[in-house]
Design brief:
This protein has 424 residues and is α+β, with helices and mostly antiparallel strands. Helices cover 30% and strands 27% of the residues. It folds into four domains: 92 residues, Rossmann fold; 56 residues, Dna Ligase, domain 1 (2-Layer Sandwich), CATH 3.30.1490.20; 124 residues, D-amino Acid Aminotransferase, Chain A, domain 1 (2-Layer Sandwich); 95 residues, Phosphoribosylglycinamide synthetase, C-terminal domain (Glycinamide Ribonucleotide Synthetase, Chain A, domain 4), CATH 3.90.600.
Length: 424
């Protein structure tokens, strides 16, 4: 098979790494990719938002399967553009991807169909948002409706922070058109966990659980990011609770989307919070989480390519996925200044030393080549991942590899996994 992966981050590097292992694979392309991906796939110089050019490329090259990594091309209709050309794609249609593209749509879908989530209101302007001040107590959560690269959420601890967030969103336009309307919702206490499933429009294949670490700083301090680390399994919920949540939330949501004329083919991601009343949905994504995908794909036993091809064709059949018993950990290395103003162009050395350590895989995100030197070229730059018998061992291996990477100003969390291993 000829396969095209769309995207250029560590998630797409992990996807290419896993697909490259398939005996069914003939040619692997990635658009736009990055230097790490370029070692295992042919890079295509097309940006993820160039929907028609990507679809034209897939048609010209007779691509057998396109796998879409990031949310932006999905919300712009890349899957639709491919399907109208008769091409197979693992990724949801534009109207199905609205479950991530619009927080308002997702919350209202959950409200219509009894999917557990926090109480909320929708504000269309600053006046409506300010009128809702204090309705759900403190803290309160404000979310930009549209895509904001994982950074469009503000947790306001009091009235002053709330008013400042409303001003940023509506008056200063910090998130642009993504905050033309916002969701204001109750703050929920509990551990967060990521549940993902592969979907063929009707059936779901649960992926292993994972836990993501969103805040930039140790102890969950500082601003939200796209994700600074992850591990799988999540370690914060039982197998029974996970199975029940997959059925009552992910499978139920796929069924609800189908009944509304939005059949979902691709990866459905539910970001959950475990409350005393049971799991509640914080957000839905329409693709693999990043950095959760890196950890989960390290544990996947199955050949991923035929599974995704079957999903794209709308029929998984009777498949079930199998995962290694070992744990996987992922530590994200980011540029100084991330997430607001990441410094770029810094030289990174020592990857060869880190990569040969036992159980290590390193996936590139924001990297570039300057001559023969690897340099930082984004906010999140590398995902350093490890497998070991348990989470303690996986984290020990991952952090040992991080220490080998010669990049003096690298930013990373030193406490990934600590909440699970030492909850006190």
């Amino acid at each position: 098979m000829k396969v095209l992966v769309v995207g250029g981050g560590a998630r797409e590097h992990a996807l290419c790494w896993k697909l490259r292992q398939s005996p069914l694979l003939e040619d692997l392309y990635c658009a736009p990719g990055n230097p790490g991906i370029g070692e295992i796939a042919d890079l295509v110089p097309l940006a993820v938002e160039e929907v028609q050019r990507l679809a034209d490329f897939a048609a010209e090259m007779k691509i057998d399967l396109t796998v879409v990594g990031p949310e932006l091309p999905l919300t712009l209709g890349l899957a639709d553009a491919l399907r109208t050309r008769g091409l197979a794609v693992f990724g949801p249609s534009q109207i199905a991807a609205e479950i991530e593209g619009s927080k308002v749509f997702a919350k209202q879908l959950m409200q219509r169909h009894g999917i557990p989530t926090a109480p909320f209101i929708v504000a269309h302007d600053a006046a409506e948002a300010l009128a809702a001040r204090g309705r759900f107590g403190w803290p309160a959560v404000l979310k930009a409706d549209g895509l904001a690269a994982g950074k469009g959420v503000v947790i306001a601890r009091d009235e002053a922070e709330y008013d400042a967030a409303v001003h940023e969103m509506f008056d200063e336009r910090r998130f642009g058109a993504a905050a033309d309307r916002i969701v204001v919702e109750a703050f929920l206490e509990g551990e967060e966990v990521s549940l993902m499933a592969l979907c063929d429009g009707e059936r779901v294949l649960p992926l292993a659980t994972a836990k993501d670490y969103k805040r930039i700083g140790d102890g969950d301090t500082g601003p939200n990011t796209g994700g600074m680390g992850s591990h799988s399994p999540a370690g914060v919920l039982s197998a029974e609770t996970a199975a029940a949540a997959f059925e009552s939330i992910l499978h139920h949501t796929v069924a609800c989307l189908a009944t509304e004329g939005r059949p979902f083919i691709g990866v459905l991601y539910a970001g959950l919070i475990l409350t005393p009343e049971g799991p509640r949905v914080l957000e839905f994504n329409a693709r693999f989480g990043d950095p959760e995908a890196q950890a989960i794909l390290l544990r996947l036993n199955d050949d991923l390519l035929p599974v995704l091809a079957a999903g794209a064709a709308g029929n998984f059949g009777t498949r079930r996925l199998s995962f290694r018993k070992e744990a996987a950990a992922c530590i994200v290395l980011a540029s100084p200044g991330y997430p607001l103003r990441p410094v770029q162009g810094e030289v990174i050395r020592g990857l060869d030393r880190a990569a040969v350590l036992p159980g290590i895989e390193i996936f590139h995100a924001g990297t570039a080549l300057a001559g023969e030197e690897l340099v930082s070229a984004g906010g999140r730059v590398l995902s350093v991942c490890a497998l070991d018998a348990d989470l303690v061992g996986a984290l020990r291996r991952a952090y040992a590899a991080v220490a080998e990477i010669d990049w003096p100003t690298k930013v990373y969390r030193h406490d990934v996994g600590r909440r699970v291993l030492d909850p006190a």
